[in-house]
Fold these 2 entries.
Entry 1:
Amino acid sequence: MNHNKKYFRAVDKLQALEQAWMEKIAKDPDFRALQRLRQKTQDMLTNCPHEETTVKNQYREGSYLDRASTETWTECVLCRRVLSEHIETHDWYG
Ligand SMILES: [Zn+2]
């Protein structure tokens, strides 16, 4: 129990230090510029036109009670969003 409390305090102290650092660098112009850059990238990914896609699939072995299946999905190469998915259930069991 005592050991756990020590651990808790150690993590708590690290988090307080981390918070203090975050507050310090939040005022830095370079850090603010980096944040704006990240936001712009994030906005572009949010509005991604999904120009390049790839088709992926994963086979799932069934079990004694479940049939095997193959999941196929189309994913955007840039933002990784899944645009469509299809699960084909096979005739056999695992
Ligand atoms: Zn996309």
Note: The chain has two domains: 1-47, 50-94.
Entry 2:
Amino acid sequence: MISVPIGEPSFFIFHLVLVLLTIFFCFLGSASASAEEAAVLFKWKASISNPDNLLLTSWSLQQNSSLCSWYGVSCINGSVNRLNLSDSNINGTLYNFPFSSLPNLEYIDMGNNELWGSIPPQIGNLSKLIYLDLQGGALSNEIPREIGLLKNLHALHLNRNNLNGSIPEEIGQLRFLNDLALAANNLDGPIPASFDVGRRLLFYWNIKTD
Ligand SMILES: *[C@@H]1O[C@H](CO)[C@@H](O)[C@H](O)[C@H]1NC(C)=O
Ligand SMILES: *[C@@H]1O[C@H](CO)[C@@H](O)[C@H](O)[C@H]1NC(C)=O
Ligand SMILES: *[C@@H]1O[C@H](CO)[C@@H](O)[C@H](O)[C@H]1NC(C)=O
Ligand SMILES: *[C@@H]1O[C@H](CO)[C@@H](O)[C@H](O)[C@H]1NC(C)=O
Ligand SMILES: *[C@@H]1O[C@H](CO)[C@@H](O)[C@H](O)[C@H]1NC(C)=O
Ligand SMILES: CC(=O)N[C@H]1CO[C@H](CO)[C@@H](O)[C@@H]1O
């Protein structure tokens, strides 16, 4: 007969099991989060005009490939925190970019590629975004007003594209923004009144403020 221990030892074992289960589910949680983020980023890669881009070879859903070691991807706790695809010869649009599925993304650097089409309004879903660089592409149409939802944004570089229309009023409400580059587009109209007077010209002329 096996005697089941009662009293303190079983209490201890109960707690041990609880701790182990917690660790297990945390691990499982972050593993499934990264599997989902890998799947949506892979889908975006498949949507670009040159998914065979050699720099993106590591972007694979094979078992031996892990999201956090993909080219240009940096993670915190298994979730994508930084995406740096600057100067990577990417020809494509942002229409399939998983803006709603990368909740921990803080830095996007996709400058100096062949990005075209418009900037989707879903960009406003990246609520933790601090840094957004889409300069040096062929992005067209207007800057979406949803950019004003990126409350943590410090730097916004959209210079050297084909953006048109007026600068959305909402940009003036981004209180941490101190580095705005909009030069070399087809933007027109006045600087929105929402920009505070001290920062106006500096912003317009694309100079960093502090
Ligand atoms: C980018 O892809 C489009 C569509 O496939 C193609 O027409 C265009 O020439 C490409 N641009 C460059 C610079 O390769
Ligand atoms: C993963 O496996 C595939 C197919 O077996 C192989 O071609 C690729 O080089 C491997 N990648 C890594 C990062 O080991
Ligand atoms: C990573 O996850 C652990 C456990 O959930 C948490 O305590 C820690 O603050 C997280 N680290 C960051 C940088 O978010
Ligand atoms: C992205 O990588 C380039 C080249 O390594 C580097 O110059 C740039 O500062 C990086 N951008 C960010 C936001 O880390
Ligand atoms: C911006 O450009 C697009 C096409 O490139 C055009 O349809 C649209 O009318 C332009 N918008 C403004 C405000 O000029
Ligand atoms: C999940 C989420 O925040 N979705 C939003 C993404 O952005 C679009 C366009 O702004 C909204 O309509 C969604 O509600």
Note: Residues 62, 64-65 surround 2-acetamido-2-deoxy-beta-D-glucopyranose (ligand 2) (CB under 6 Å).
